[in-house]
Amino acid sequence: MSEARVRSLMYSGVTALKAGEMSSARNYLERAIYTARDHDMLADLWFYLSEVESEKEKKRHALDEALSYRMTHPRARRSLAILNGTLKPTEIVDADKIAAPDMGDKKANADRFECPNCGGRMSFSPNGQTLICDFCEVGDEVASESEEAKEQDFFSAMATLRGHRKPVAHKIFHCEGCGAEFLLPPDNLSASCAYCASPHVINHGETRELLDPDAIIPHTFDQRRAAKILVEWVKENNFTPQGRVLPPRGFYIPVWTFDIGGSISYRGERLVEEEQRQGFGFKSEKVYKTERGDLALFVDDLIIPAAKKYEQYIDNFLKNYELRETKPYNPRYLSSWSAETYEVALSDAALEARSRAYKAEHKKAQRSMYYLKKFRSSSASLAVTSYKLLLLPLWMTTYPYDDDAFTVLINGQTGAVYGELPKKLKPKEKGGVMGWLNETF
User: Using one digit for the tens of pLDDT, what is the confidence trace for 77-104?
Assistant: First the structure.
C-alpha cells in the first residue's frame, strides 16, 4: 500500500476519533498500522490508537509501541506519564502563559534539628550520614546505606511548573562582596561567604522560589582534613604562598545531571566502484553512493553546572565525583553547611545537555566514518529522559602570589584537588606551614 493511502487511512481514523466514532477509528488505524512502514508514521498511528483504547493495559501497550518507533513522541510520552501517575492532567501548563513568580516575602522553611537527649543544636557530621549534637555528642542517622537518589522524569517536569519554576520558599544569603548566593543552614543568624570569606548578617525576610534538590553527595571529611590536603598539594607543587591563606571553606555546589537516550541519524556519500555498461562491454568507474543509518545513543548522568561562579574550573573538576554514591536529599545534610543556589534553569540546562551529547556523538561518528563525504547528522530522535538536581560537596580557598589571588578547589567526597598555579613559581621560601596557613579552627 502506498504512503498516500496510509496517510488517507490515518486521516480517516483521526477524523472518526474526534467525532467519537471509536469503532470506525479503530478500524482505520489498525489497517494503517498493518501496512505502514515509516517509523514516524507508525509512532503517530499507535498514539492515535491509544486514544481509542479504553482499557488501561491496551492503552499502555499502544503508547509503548508508539515510543518504540519514536521515543521523543511528545504526546505519547505525556499520555504515558499520566497513565503511570507521574503526571496529573491538572498540573500541565502552557509554558508560554506561565504567570510571573510572586517575589513578595514568604515564610522560609527553616527546620531546627534538636538533640533528642539534651535539646541542643545538632550539626551534620562529615561521615556521610549522621547528625551530631554540639553538646552531648549524641548521634542521629540521616540516611541508611541502602537509600539511593531517584531520577526524576524529565518530560513530566517540563509539562508542569517544575520544569520552569516551583514556588518553594528558601532562605537566601547574598554576598555583597562577590555576589555569590547560598541556601542557608536552618536558623543561621550570620554567615561567611564560602568564596570570599566576608562576614554577613542574614536577612530572614529574603526568600527565593527555587526547586528543592533531588539528591546530595554528603561531605566526607572536616575542615582540618581539608587543610591537610591543601598543605600536601602546596608541598607537591614545591612553592610557598606569599601571604596568609584562610583554611578551605566547605559548602555544596548545585549541578544538574541528565540521562539522554535515543538515536542520531546520519547520511553521507561513499565512494564505490561500479560496473558501467559501455558499448558491448562494461567499465569499472568510481561513483558516490548515499549511505545513511542510525546510531543508538545513551548517556548516563551527564553533568551540567547549575551555577556560574568559577564555572571555568568546575567543568573539568566535576569528573572527580563518584555520582553513584548519591543520597536522597534531606535538609538535615545542610545542618552546619551552606549550599550555593542554582542559576541555570532546568529547561536551559536540559538544552545544553542534549547539545553536548549530540555534538560529542557527531564528532565520534564523523571520525569513525571518515570515508563518508558530506557527512551530516540529525539529533531529532535524541531526548532527555530523566534528571536530578544534585548538591556536590566542595572545599575552596584562595592564596596570594605575585600580587594576584589563585583558587584551590578540593572535592569534599574524594579529596581530589584542582588548583591554579602561577605561570612562574619562585624558589620555595622557608618558614613552613605556619608561615602561610591561617589555622583558626
Answer: 888 888 888 777 777 655 555 454 444 4
Packing angle, helices 39-52 and 3-18, rounded to 10: 20
pLDDT at 437 over 90: no
Closest Cα to residue 425, out of 243, 233, 250, 239?
Answer: 239
Bridge partners, residue 192, by sequence: 199
The residue assigned the cell 533531588 is 214
Average pLDDT over residues 209-213: 72
Q: Which cell numbers in the block locate residue 321? A: 565525583
Cell numbers at residue 219, please? 561531605
Ranges of beta strands (E only) in 164-248 are 169-174, 181-183, 190-192, 199-201, 207-209, 215-216
Query: In angstroms, rounded to a whole number, what is the distance separating the alpha carbons of residues 244 and 112?
Result: 35
pLDDT (tens digit, 9 = 90+) per residue, 351-399? 899 999 999 999 999 999 999 999 999 988 888 888 999 999 999 999 9
CA angle, 28 then 29 then 30, to 5°: 95
- Give me the percent of the chain exceeding a pLDDT of 70: 71
Contact present, 231 and 237 (Cβ < 8 Å): no
In this structure, what C-alpha cell is assigned to residue 33?
498500522
Q: Is the pLDDT of residue 119 over 80?
A: no
Domain chopping of the chain, boundaries = 3-85
Q: Which of 183, 186, 205, 170 is nearest to 110 (CA)?
A: 186
Cell representation of residue 241: 604562598
- DSSP letter, residue 380: T
CATH class of 3-85: mainly alpha
Residue closest to 299 by CA, chosen among 215, 379, 366, 375: 379
What whole-number distance in Å separates Cα of residue 143 and Cα of residue 145? Answer: 7
Distances (CA, A) of 146 to 288, 325, 327: 57, 10, 9
- Other Cβ atoms within 10 Å of 21 Cβ, number: 15
Q: What is the DSSP letter of 163?
A: G
Q: Does the predicted model carry a pTM greater than 0.70?
A: no
CA 327 centroid distance within chain:
15
Task: Give the CA dihedral 202, 206, 211, 216, nearest 10 degrees.
Answer: 0
